[in-house]
Amino acid sequence: MAAILSGTDAGMTGALDNCTLVVPSIGRPSLDVLLDALAGASGPRPAELVVVDDRLTGAPLRPDRAGLPPVRVVRTGGGGPARARNLGWRVARTEWIAFLDDDVVPDPDWYERLAADLAALPADVAGTQGRVRVPLPAGRRPTDWERGTAGLATSSWITADLAYRRAALAAVGGFDERFPRAFREDSDLALRVMDTGAGLTRGERWITHPVRPVDRWVSARVQAGNADDVLMRRLHGPDWRARADAAVGRRPRHLAVTGAALAALGLAVAGRPRAAALAALGWAAGTAEFAWARVAPGPRTRHEVTTMALTSAVIPPLATWHFLRGAVQHRDVPAWRGLPDLVLFDRDGTLVHDVPYNGDPALVRPVDGAREALDALRARGVRIGLVTNQSGVGRGLITRAQADAVNARVAELLGPFDTVQVCPHAPEDGCDCRKPAPGMVKAACAELDVAPARCVLIGDIAADVQAAAAAGAAGILVPTPVTRPEEVTAAAHRAPTLAEAVDDVLAGAW
């Protein structure tokens, strides 16, 4: 590796020039430790550092310090780790997205080794995972929590340090936001990426993942992850653990222990004391076995033994409850689609009130809720564009400069667009850009390097949704009084208002 690092400096620098580093955070003190390590590390810097503030409230995070890449802070409003990572990669515009958790410490040569890892990857590899060390205490055996954290060192596809091609994330819709915790959402993403035929590999860069201090009940709280395991099974089948390299847990034994406890209670209420005593004995034996399995490899201090005894009694019923809750909650789940990469809007009748052949910016009036709807998409990192037929230019009724001035006024009132596509032709010109032809949709996707299948077009007439379908995009019709009844009937997806159409997009219904 030393030869690689010394011999390909230009290539490595180029690799990080096309990489964005994304760090989701809830403002823990460990973020400062991470940022200090990144600021002091050697080697080339990524194009940008995006810190995603995933808190509901609080003063903005201020990660500025000398030595960091250019920093941008974006906020989710408390959407959880999957949504935070999705926002981070969606606002980025580089080929590679490198994720770090806010409680890790990268090695001093992390930038250099990340650059070397990326530069060495063939085109059919979609991601590269860093290597993790978990320091355990010297001079004593690790606690149950410390041993659990140490398992990160051998885990596969964890986003504590994982870089993905942005195109690979876009192709599968990013992280599945139905995983509410920092648990299984990274394994789910890896399986979906590999299902596309892309490969994942391990790099040579290293991070340290310290064991964070916790209270004695943390092992009980993490049993909520049993519901996420149910979701994994629903999405990826019964062999998902083998494919994700995930350890097999104790859930069958937890079910048996919980069943024994319930049987003991039921039999006692039914007036069958001897049978109840046998069931209670089975519960006690199962609980004792579980507690000893956790105590034996540990330090066996009074605090640890007490903690293991208490939590070993409550974990089996909690694990069973969350498993059953997940079985109900996730009994019917579709494949994750995520948000589109691009939402295109028709102009007249959709974003602004229709003024036929308008060449006067002063006549532009947005429809109700238009600015809020577009801002909702921007807040989630979704790019937006304008696609508008302007046959008045081709007919000589207005000039192209007037049409552009009206578009500029629309952007002034509704916020900037990532792409603006105008067809200046008359209907009889036979162009391939005038809707319902797909030209403008394809041009917008090509300009922003978006696959048409990850694009939505929202408009008010059949020509809009037909243009979307012809380009391979999704279409949503928002009828107005000028929309013909047969157009409404024919539309596969329609919404009563612009705001509701955008709500559908944000809910994944597109």
Automatic annotation (TrEMBL):
Keyword S-adenosyl-L-methionine: no
Alphabetic keyword roster: Carbohydrate metabolism, Cytoplasm, Hydrolase, Metal-binding
Classification via InterPro entries: Glyco_trans_2-like (IPR001173), HAD-like_sf (IPR036412), HAD-SF_hydro_IIIA (IPR006549), HAD_sf (IPR023214), Heptose_bisP_phosphatase (IPR004446), Histidinol-phos (IPR006543), Nucleotide-diphossugar_trans (IPR029044)
GO molecular function list: metal ion binding; phosphatase activity
One of the protein's GO biological processes: carbohydrate metabolic process
Any Pfam family: Hydrolase_like
Glycosyltransferase 2-like domain: residues covered: 23-133
Family annotation (Gene3D superfamilies): HAD superfamily/HAD-like (3.40.50.1000), Spore Coat Polysaccharide Biosynthesis Protein SpsA, Chain A (3.90.550.10)
Keyword Hydrolase: yes
Subcellular location: Cytoplasm
GO cellular component: cytoplasm
Domain of life of the source: Bacteria
NCBIfam families tied to this protein: HAD-SF-IIIA, Histidinol-ppas
Family: Belongs to the GmhB family.
Protein name (database record): D,D-heptose 1,7-bisphosphate phosphatase
Organism field: Modestobacter roseus
